[in-house]
Write the structure tokens for this entry.
Amino acid sequence: MATIEKYRAVTLEKGTVSVREHPFPKLQIDFDGHRKPLPHGVILKILLSNVCGSDMHMYRGRTDAGPGLILGHENTGEVFMKGADVETLEIGDWVSVPFNVACGRCENCIERKTHICLSVNTKWPGGAFGYADMGPWPGGQAEYLLVPYADFNLLKFPKNVPKDKLLDIAFLSDIFPTAYDGAVKAGVTTGLSVYIAGAGPVGICCVAACKLLGASYIFCGDFESARLENAARAGAIPINLEKEKLHDKIKSVLGKAEVDCGVDCVGFESCGHHGNKRRTDEERSEVLNTIISVTKFGGGVGIPGLYLPADPGAATEVGKKGMFVLSFGDAWNKSLYMQGGQCPVMKWNRLLLDAILSGRTKVAEYLNVQLIGLDEAPKAYKEFNEGAPKKFIIDPHGVLRTPGTK
Amino acid sequence: MATIEKYRAVTLEKGTVSVREHPFPKLQIDFDGHRKPLPHGVILKILLSNVCGSDMHMYRGRTDAGPGLILGHENTGEVFMKGADVETLEIGDWVSVPFNVACGRCENCIERKTHICLSVNTKWPGGAFGYADMGPWPGGQAEYLLVPYADFNLLKFPKNVPKDKLLDIAFLSDIFPTAYDGAVKAGVTTGLSVYIAGAGPVGICCVAACKLLGASYIFCGDFESARLENAARAGAIPINLEKEKLHDKIKSVLGKAEVDCGVDCVGFESCGHHGNKRRTDEERSEVLNTIISVTKFGGGVGIPGLYLPADPGAATEVGKKGMFVLSFGDAWNKSLYMQGGQCPVMKWNRLLLDAILSGRTKVAEYLNVQLIGLDEAPKAYKEFNEGAPKKFIIDPHGVLRTPGTK
Amino acid sequence: MATIEKYRAVTLEKGTVSVREHPFPKLQIDFDGHRKPLPHGVILKILLSNVCGSDMHMYRGRTDAGPGLILGHENTGEVFMKGADVETLEIGDWVSVPFNVACGRCENCIERKTHICLSVNTKWPGGAFGYADMGPWPGGQAEYLLVPYADFNLLKFPKNVPKDKLLDIAFLSDIFPTAYDGAVKAGVTTGLSVYIAGAGPVGICCVAACKLLGASYIFCGDFESARLENAARAGAIPINLEKEKLHDKIKSVLGKAEVDCGVDCVGFESCGHHGNKRRTDEERSEVLNTIISVTKFGGGVGIPGLYLPADPGAATEVGKKGMFVLSFGDAWNKSLYMQGGQCPVMKWNRLLLDAILSGRTKVAEYLNVQLIGLDEAPKAYKEFNEGAPKKFIIDPHGVLRTPGTK
Amino acid sequence: MATIEKYRAVTLEKGTVSVREHPFPKLQIDFDGHRKPLPHGVILKILLSNVCGSDMHMYRGRTDAGPGLILGHENTGEVFMKGADVETLEIGDWVSVPFNVACGRCENCIERKTHICLSVNTKWPGGAFGYADMGPWPGGQAEYLLVPYADFNLLKFPKNVPKDKLLDIAFLSDIFPTAYDGAVKAGVTTGLSVYIAGAGPVGICCVAACKLLGASYIFCGDFESARLENAARAGAIPINLEKEKLHDKIKSVLGKAEVDCGVDCVGFESCGHHGNKRRTDEERSEVLNTIISVTKFGGGVGIPGLYLPADPGAATEVGKKGMFVLSFGDAWNKSLYMQGGQCPVMKWNRLLLDAILSGRTKVAEYLNVQLIGLDEAPKAYKEFNEGAPKKFIIDPHGVLRTPGTK
């Protein structure tokens, strides 16, 4: 093939997002002070790359993202070029790319903890594409993407799946497994009731996950009625926290004011009643404390929403240190089990792929997907940050946008 | 209330089923040679009592059922009378009765192994209502039923549930939890493919269970097209083993000839191609060996179908001893995990009740339920034994049969 | 037997502990405003009743214990009298009494969650003997004890076990299962390293539990060298937090400063460096935050130490509400799994009994047990509260104290 | 380094074992009809390579081993040469080599099922070094060994560990994890009783594993008193099946004739009472049926002993097909859970390494290890086949045999 010298990518610089040219990637990376060859890597041509709520954390300056960061960790692509030690993938294969970068060779990867891979990030365990503090890996809101350890990381799926299923598959790179993982951590199973905090994209995926897991009553709370409509279409009982009292609403359905399981699909930047204004310590912890209060004795709490060990943009000293004022005495007394953390996407994406391909589940149609080109990304960031109840997906090569394709 | 002296019940005597009068039960039982008081027991007025495939084992003389056995282990009832140590139930409560009799006080019950309770059967661990070798407990195909350890055993549900849901609830006493348990033992979860052997009532319930558990492709094999139609309506891909090759059919759908999980919903009396004639050792083991062959390396096999430690009616010496000629070398080489055994109904019935009440699942409409009065039971036994693709449910007091009720 | 009218018991009144006479118990209790018969109950003659660290919470006024509370939730006894619905126990049987009072009939007990039984406490799920807010059940630091639901609750063990094993068995009522449960919740298993915060009795039992579970390196940190000596004798690597830096000490042994699992055997009343003086919010949360910092990415944290939903004696507003300032952002980023809560003793006591009887484990000899008579209890409370590195066990009838007995 | 052209290896040819020269390995393999490069591979200098009971299956002609097979799947080595895509290993590192060859990139490896890797064997899932039907991988009873996917497969351990620990570490390649896996599959945990069938090397390792897992009473049965002495030294209660009745012996210790868990450490070539003569179908199944009979209702059965899907050397038609006449009706009635299959060594070897290094466990001293040179291997095969109660370990470079080394 002819050599490509440049490619275009959504780039974050000092709080501004723009589309810039970058040198075409090679099968190598600058890592820990030296240039590391990646014979196990591939270059993907990006099919779809979603804009994610956690991109907004960087956009808003709530992380210490370095200069010139190429964004995009929710990627779907086609194998374009491969290294000498790639055995299972062929040029042209379509693949879903877990947002976690993982080596498949360290102790944690071997134990399926690909979210805390020991080899791909010098700061702490765990890497990601296009993300602050998560290693040197450029993101995929771009024409191309370098993926190391490709045999291990990539999930192959059939070419030419119908357009609607391709959109569902696009969510396998992050938020569908993330939401499913949160539901599993909360102990959701056949017949149980669930409260999902947040009707954003992760919350909607969580509704679908809870249905797959057999939950009976799935409540979803939010302050935005447009988002709640999405949740309701996905199968949830919506609760408008602006207008309804959470415990009362649950009691009116279940006859008791507590659910079996709670899932926090919001995270540390919850704004709740308080908008984006600078919040007190108790306001910052409100989502978690609400979930603790609404989950029954012996119930489970999953926390896929992102919390960070430092939050330089927080309004309080406690907040800056990544600390939260939690009603832990209550949680302990109720014997709740609680777990958060990044999702190890590879634990769930193959199962969810089969659930999608067999028609057992779907999510895209509840998410108000809007396909855009690369150049529309800066505008989409702005809209999403302002709360548009949409999921923007960048289709840099026009695979789905071109009339007549699939 | 006025004293009742007699009640009518379906009674098995020398291979013949008839409706006979018996003395009205007291809160006591003859156990291990002495009369044991049951202050923890209740007398139920039977709402519904299903005829079960495993009743046929006794009907056909494949067990050593004693004389005058009152049949019926799939019971749903209304609390009619209660003992001094019944705390949580009130007269008039509607309850589902797990087929296992369990004390709630022995080591096994405490560990949730109510299927092998140590206190209710002198022959071996595990008791059941109306069943050979399973203790002294009369069955519920009758006007009334004595249930010991009632607080522990009985699952209360709302009165006046709609008729269709009451029929679904009727399957919580045995075959829905049994089928669900088999699917769980087989490792069924989100996205996996399953082969269910047998499209009888347990097989149909297993299709519903696999859907609740999120399975992708659910195959169900049988030799009877009428039964397979039920399975298809429940959501399965039917395989007519008379006409289709099992592995080929699976391959045509999945692209490979093996499934992730196999469930044996048939048991030791499988007749398969061979009808009811006397079978060789390999024919007797055919269902299990087929499942071993069709389940992938590393897959799981659940065996809710009944196997017994002795089968006096078998045609071979090996068979009489409850032994089977299994391709265990293959199972070992494939690292299959296999588990059978009675279902501990209490492990699942509450979860499934909530799944039914919330509308997440249903089974009755796929089972061709036929409601009958007590006096029609002998005829129903004959028809069911001859293979009628129906589920007969006895409604001794006309709760659902009377026009105008619920 | 001759009627007994009175019995003597350790009684808490306005922060003072004394031995008083009370009317001999009957098989009934005042519950939820009415007198409830307990045909399933027994009266035990107390063999041994331990003084527990959590008794100190009440002694110090950190709970809202009612007037005239008979203390004692770590009880071992002999069946002295039994109700009409007790089937498995005989007069004279020796039994270990789980500190949790549980009915064995509610949804939670059926699911083995006896620590949050729904029937024995009107305030919230979960009951205990002799404990504030945990139901109307008198404690066992007394000559006799009423135990409801005796068949379900009591663990029978052989009479005439040797004296040293009887002392080990005395810890099956609470702290050995509690510590084991904490280790299990922390994910301790073969080959893993553990940090146990606190070398009090629960911490020492946790060392024994971690050995049973196959842990490799078991660190135990405390500020008191006398307590640390106990831990070292039990098999731990002691860390004197007054003199050594926790992370450095761990690193000197493991070559890295983090352990696989952390267990908080201290709870909300940790005093640490700060003694008993009134503490800031960060000091109150120090044990948990230290464990979060010392547990590796992907590790587990078990929290058997007690935390309460309200702490009227706390020095801060946050503290009074049972809230804690936790480095939750760090815990999330590390994907820690964390669980606290009361231990469901019945889940582990039988296994641990067999481990004791077979000689696989022991704890009493590391705990500096001091046997005392009832009348010495007030003095023991005082000493224990002042930090004596002993475990006081009341032997009200002189079973072990009398020369020549066992 | 100077080029090495030849190396010496234990080679099986037509039932005879001899030491032959072979061309020095390259980082490639003939696989599925083509030459496949292995940039992820290493060449190890063998430190220790054990002779295994399952080598005897091939030695005795019970498998279809091809001509010129280099034996040896229990290997420990030093990295001597490495491919371009080896990132975590350095020349000189000491490593334990799991007997399973696994790619770390296929669906099964990702799910930790390295025993049934999909990429390393064309016959069926799962590969091994030096083993019939397990792929093209030469064994390590040799001076050198080629290991593919080295970063993934190899477990690094400290150089210069003391000699006795090095011998323990030598068992991490197969039989210690295999035995531990069998115990885990049988459900062994704190306080449970276990019956281990077979006091050969796997049985002895299983005794050590059960101790690590906290079992109370560990029975081990065999027909050879010399082997039983090893088991007793390891901590088992020995049962000489030639002289003692199994159930009676168990009853004399436990007070009941059944154990909680059974582990079959024998496999399909059990000779039992019957010596090596040609056996009937029931004799071939005797070990499994005995375990079924001696395991309690609700207990677990682990089957690390090898069973194969075909046994050309069997005396009966049923046997040749890899079928067994099992008392499955009894197993079902008892609700036993049973699992066999190759052990995924990587699931346990790191945990067991830490247990060895910390001094928590050891096995070599109970196994009568005899270190030999390569040239002594043929004699050792003969002795081991005749039942010598020893474990032969080949030390081809004299690492442990040379006086003065480590």
Remarks:
- The mean pLDDT of chain B is 94.
- The interface with chain C takes residues 37, 39-40, 84-85, 87-88, 103-107, 110-112, 119, 151-152, 346, 350 of chain B (CB under 8 Å).
- DSSP finds 14 helices and 21 strands in chain B.
